Structure formats: C-alpha cells, structure tokens
Amino acid sequence: MQSQWREIAALKAALLERDRLLAERDAHLRRQDELVAKLEHEVTTLKKLVFGPRSEKQSHDDLAALTAAGRQPFLFLQEIALSAKKLAEEKQIQATVTLVSEEKPAPRHGRRKLFPAHLPHVTTELELPPERRMCCGTEMKRIGEETSKTLERVETFVVHELVRSKYACQVCHEHVVTVPGPDRVIDKGILSTGALAHVITERFGNHLPYHRLEKKYAAEGIDLSRSVLCRASLACAEILEPIVKQMAKDVRSAVLVQMDDTPVVLQESSSGGRKTANFWIYRELEGRHVYDFTESRSRDGPLEMLGEREGLVQADAYSAHDVLFGPDSKMLEVGCMAHARRYFKKALDSEKSLAQEALDTIRRLYLVERAAKEKNLDPEGVLRLRREHSDSELARFKAWLEITRTQVLDKGPMAKAIDYTLSNWEALARFVTDGRIPIDNNAAERALRAVAVGRKNWMQIGSVRGGKDAAILYSLVQTCKAIRLDPKTYLADVLERIGKESDVEKLTPHGWQKHFAADVTAQRDALLTKVASAR
After folding, report:
1. In the beta sheet, which residues pair with residue 277?
2. Residues 445 and 432 occupy one common structural domain
3. Which candidate, 10, 206, 178, 1, places its Cα nearest to that of 91?
4. Does residue 401 form part of some domain?
5. Which of 385, 466, 360, 458 is nearest to 61 (CA)?
6. Is the same domain home to 447 and 432?
7. 453 and 323 share a domain?
8. Can you tell me the distance from the alpha carbon of 333 to that of 330, in angstroms, rounded to the nearest whole number?
9. Who contacts 184 (Cβ-Cβ below 8 Å, separation ≥6)?
10. Between β-strands 134-135 and 138-139, what pairing exists: parallel, antiparallel or unpaired?
11. In this structure, is the dihedral angle defined by the CA atoms of residues 73, 76, 80 and 85, taken in order, positive or negative?
C-alpha cells in the first residue's frame, strides 16, 4: 500500500515538474516570439527609413494643403525711390531719383494677361545684315517689324550712391551745412536696410547658408564674405531682439501654446567642444512663432520660456515636459493625436488588422475636424460637432484599447502604441472639451521644418550666441510667413523704424501689419502708378 502511495507521489511530482518545464518553455517561447516580432519590426522600420516614403499619409487621406500667393517683391529702382521719398519727408529735404521712362504696355488681346506695367522694359532690335537684304538685284525696303515679349529674371545688387549737398556761408566763411542723410542700421556698414532684409530672408526663410550666399554674390562680382554676412545678421538680431521678447509675452498670454523641439549640432558649446543642442518652437493660434535655442533638451528651456503661465500647452509626451504640468502648475496638458497615430502606424507590420482598426478610428476623428474646417465653424460650432461625433468615438476607442491590450505581446509595437495612448488619454482627449484646441500638434512640427530643412544646408550652429540670434531671426521671418507678410518688406521697414518707434508692440509682425502695412503698401502703389504713368 505504501509503495502505491510512493508511486502516486512520485507521479504527481513528475507531473508538477513537467508542468513547470512546460511553463518555462512557454515563457521562453513567448519571449522568443516577442524578440522576433521586435527584430522584424525594427528591420521593417529600417527598410522604410532607407528605401520607403517618409510621409505618414495613407492612401485614403485626402487633406488639401493651404497655400497663399504672396505679393511680388518690388524692384530695386522702386525701393530706392521709396527710400528717397521717406528720407526727404523725414529730414525735410529734396531728393530726386531718375527712373528710365518706358512706353506703356500694349492693350490686352485675348485672354493672356498683360506684362506688368511697373517692370522695366528692355528692347533688343534684330536686323538683317546688308547682304541678306538684297533681292532681284535691289535692296529690299523695310515695311514693318514683329515684336514678341518674354519675362526675364535679373537679380543683382545695385550701388546706391547718396549725394548730400554742402553749403557754406560766403560772408563768415565758417558756417558749413551738409544735407543730413539716413541713419544706418549698422555703423559704417555697406548694406542698406533692404539688403540686410534680403540676406536675413535668404538665410532664415530660404535656408541658404552664408557660404552659399558668399558664392552667389561672388558670381555677381560682389565681395561679401560669409563672415561679413554673418556679423550683419547677428547685429540685426541684436537690434530686433526687443521685438521677439514682446512676441514671447504675447505667446505666453495666449489661450493655448503649442511647443516642440528639434536637435541641431552645436560646434562650440559654453563648456567647450561639440555637442547636440536644440531649437524650440512656441506658437499660438494667431500665428505668432517664437523660437528658442538651448544647449540641451532639459526642462530648463520650457520652464524659462513659459514660466508661470496659465492655460493650455500642447506638446508631445516627452518626460521633460512633465515639470510643466505638476500638481502646483496652472498649465494644462493637451496631447497630440498625430503622435498616437504614429505608434499605430509603426505597428502595421506586426499587427496589421488591429493597428488598422485603431488607425481607422483615429481617421474618423480627423474626418470630424475636416468637416468643421470645411464648414468654417467658430469654436462653439466646432465644440458642438465634436460632442456630437467625437465624444462617442473616443469612448468606444478607449474601451477597445483596454480589451485589445490583453491580446497582444507585451513588448511588441502594438502594445507600445496602446500603452502610449492609454497613459496619455486625458491629455489626448482634451480637445473635445474646447473648440479652440487643435486635435494635434502638427502646426508646431511644421514650424520646425524651417530649422530641419535649413539644418541640411548649414549643418551646424557655430556658437551659443549664434543659436540665440538665429532663433530671433527665425521668429520674425516665420511669423511673417504664417500671417502672409513679405519678410523682406517687413524687415526693411522695421529696421528703419525701430530706433524711432517707442511702442515695440507695433513693430511685431502682427502689430506692423495692423498699424503700418497699409501705409507702406499705399506708398508703393502710388509710386508704381507714378512710374507707370511716366512711361
């Protein structure tokens, strides 16, 4: 009997050992599956990075890009004439600029638009040599001509010479008066405000590094070294810094601030040596773009910029941002649905059906946003539409995420996507509580493209001061673009006004657009009309 009990006990022990070994095997296989899935996902991701398209759009996305046609830049002769007119009014003197008069353009024929009347006209006359004018032993008679026109593009510097008259008293032979000239932005500098505005826009708007500008100008016979161009931009940044500080105040007082960052290479850090630094963007819904430069991606940059701000802050779930939303903070976090969408996009290769189901749900949320945009709804209308459609969609999505999480591998890309979404759910769903809140932070990311595109050209930032000054000039140029101002026109005018205007708020792109843009445009249009009528 005892032997039977011993056999039963041994059998039970063997079964328990078998179950333990099977459990260990299953755990090992599960870990292997997770590792294989992770490695396959990484390989697929690397292949896409190297060989695949970079866009996150799916085939069914049909979002139209907003484009706006800017004003045509004015030619150098008109700029000089306008500058002379301003100088004459300011200094109470007479200034004369000679413009070459041209014939008026021919009347309109058919549907083709007229060649712009304000453009200079250059005529090239073509004639036959005498030997080709002979026919039947006599010289042919000229009976007329054929004329055709094309648009030529000529971009170059012009030497603008200011001639200031001097007067002397013929009685005392001591009193000499010289006609006052314009104040220079840079003392003894050779670049006018228009030329400085051009260099800044080329560098921070069109992403041309200084060494390329140097070569471009050298091809025109102009000796402007990259060091001269760099120093001129830095000097302008120092002059324009109070304007950007006012813009930062305006951004901090806005209802919602969107923020993001991107890395750049810093050639010479404050501690010496090369390191990775960061450009940050802080923008509000009216288009103000304030850039900042920091030597690291720590929490100090956002804390210094946003300070004790009250209101909504939209950003990604980077851990350094958590300090902004602590228990004593008056800032409220808003998540970015586009970031969540990217995690599910990455999971398509390993869990296609589940990931696609999540993407389809997010797509339906974006369709609600598209409908609100197409209907041009105000914030209250947007909120009503979201409550009608997005609220219920979000509730179903959250329940689906919680159930699906139990069905996927713990370390797989689908699990990461679900964990990210659920851990940031309150911030991600906050957009349905206020019609002013965007569903994502894409506008801030687009604003950083100016740095990302430029980074491929200029490669690195030379110094901390260079990064800070670049942030100032990026702020002005990109804000102008956002509100459809020509950066060259704005910068050229503000560089002249900044020493005379006491209210710095009027010199911000938004303030300038409100107080000065109409007058500047009217003066230019009046000059164009005068030039056209003189032809």
Report:
1. 264
2. no
3. 178
4. yes
5. 360
6. no
7. yes
8. 10
9. none
10. antiparallel
11. negative
318 and 356 share one domain: no
In this structure, is residue 102 part of a structural domain?
no
Cα-based distances in Å from 48 to 45, 308, 331: 5, 42, 38
DSSP 340: H
Domain identity same for 316 and 456: yes
Does 435 reside within a domain? yes
Domain extent at residue 316: 209-333+441-489
Q: How far apart are CA 122 and CA 323, in angstroms?
A: 64
3-state SS, residue 275: strand
Same domain flag for 457 and 403 = no
Residue 476's contacts (CB-CB under 8 Å, 6 or more residues apart) are 240, 243, 244, 487, 490, 491, 509
- pLDDT per residue rounded down to tens, the chain (535 residues): 667 777 777 777 777 777 777 778 777 777 777 777 776 766 676 666 555 555 555 544 433 332 333 333 344 556 666 666 676 676 666 566 544 444 454 455 555 555 666 666 767 677 778 887 888 878 888 888 887 776 666 667 777 777 888 888 888 877 888 888 777 888 778 888 888 999 999 999 999 999 999 998 888 888 889 999 999 999 999 999 999 999 999 999 999 999 999 999 998 887 778 899 999 999 999 999 999 999 988 888 888 888 778 899 998 878 777 778 877 788 899 999 999 999 999 999 888 899 999 999 999 999 999 999 999 999 999 999 999 999 999 999 999 999 999 988 888 899 999 999 999 999 999 999 999 999 999 999 999 998 998 888 888 898 999 999 999 999 999 999 999 999 999 999 999 899 888 899 999 999 999 999 999 888 877 776 665 565 5
Q: What's the rounded Cα separation, in Å, for the pair 423 and 187?
A: 56
Q: The tokens of 58 are what?
A: 């799916």
Q: Which residue in the block uniquely carries the two structure tokens 């409100």?
A: 514
Complete DSSP assignment for 279-305 = EEEEEETT--EEEEEESS-STHHHHHH
Residues 271-284 as b/e (b if ≥16 CB within 10 A, e otherwise) read: eeeeeebbbbbbbb
Query: Which residue in the block uniquely carries the two structure tokens 């708007």?
Result: 205
Q: pTM of the prediction?
A: 0.76
- The single-letter code of the amino acid at 320 is A
> Do residue 452 and residue 322 come from a single domain?
yes
Alpha-carbon distance of 131 to 358, in angstroms, equals 81
Q: Tell me whether residue 127 is in a domain.
A: no
Q: Which residues contact 453 (CB under 8 A, 6 or more apart)?
A: 207
